[in-house]
Amino acid sequence: MRPTLAWLAVPVALAATASAQPSWSASPAPSNLTPGWLAFDARTGHVVSAATETWEHEGAAWALRSLPTQASSPADLVYDPGRGIVALGIKFDTSSQRNELAVSTYLGTGWQPWPATNVPVGTRLNGFYDAIRRRLIVVTTAGGAPVTWSYDGASWQRHLGAAPSPRATLAIAFDESRGRAVLFGGLAGGQLLGDTWEWDGTTWLELTPGVSPSPRVASDLVFDAARARVMLFGGRGATALNDLWEWDGRDWRPVPTTIRPPAGQEFDLVYDPVRENLVLVSFDFVLGTRTTWALTNTTQAIVTEFGMSCASFMNPLPWERPWIGDDWSVGIGGPWRAPVLLVGGSKTSWAGLPLPTSLSVLGVPSCFLNVSPNVVLPSVLGPRARFVAAVPVPGAPALVGKEVHVQFAALDANSELSLSDSLTGTIGAR
Length: 430
What we know:
The protein is mainly β. Helices cover 1% and strands 51% of the residues. It has a 5-stranded antiparallel β-sheet with strand order 25-37-36-28-33, with no helix packed on it. It has a 4-stranded antiparallel β-sheet with strand order 1-24-23-22, with no helix packed on it. A 4-stranded antiparallel β-sheet has the order 2-3-4-5, with no helix packed on it. The chain is globular.
């Protein structure tokens, strides 16, 4: 039987209370804002929109910055931590007589084109940044199976492993919490697709979730770091769509919202990690209006660090946040042996002892216990050579706002006890 946070239990009547749904809020965008692709620039904290013009949005208003310098409008925008905002475009090369990938870097006031890539791209492309392998990835489609290319900072390489079935107008995003890219849907020979694929850095694998969004084209996928989920919005199926879904690596789940952007409009979607919301820009060409939408969780999960560690430094890594009905994953790196996670409901007292309390009685006076160890959870070796422990949070909405405190304990190379810094997780609802 899996341990749960039973000591945080609430009356059953309270557990039946419905949690507040996330809500879209709308604000007018400039009438001359051109439909473009969106990316978040972590260097400035602004959302960038690029097409025939380049705009920036700092969270309240749009500002026109520049005209692009490349020969064609972007087909996608990607944020590369080493290069900034990168525009991926399609340009016809007269010498090779084919469409090739054209890349430019945003400088804040203009665009700097890259040298010729010699990468054939057909008629459509999607891009993302693989944060685990530190590669810029481009997936191209031209009526056949999607072709995956990666750029390591020096050259482009084509990946020859398994690929999704032939399609166009697919949606793709990189899941930073799981280190995989997610691809959904598209159009093949007039047939709408509703399948899900993942990229592990080498090859694509088709998955079989029990629940999926309806088949569609022209949807959009982004990774929401606060929710630690890949989010899918809208597109076109049998009708125009404006639904919202999340992918957890196993299944899709619909996300109900109190207000929705209109279906049938042209749009692009991006995640703003500074304001922790999804940003969507929609274009109504009938009325000639542009609207900026923001989706914010009404009950956000929060993680904060507190407390001293031992003299041997151990820093816990909150890979995810504590949400009701899900596991809160916490990791730790380093050459530790048998690390376990202490999970408690208090950081002020335990068994009559004030917290923090020195472990001098155990022969480690430089170590401090910061949390009440109500539950002790094992860890497993996970991605990035780090140990990970999963804290199961019950699906009771009345737990929203409650705090959970965690601290790792492990043996060092000399078999001596060490304790980590500590984290407080405030439980939220997605």
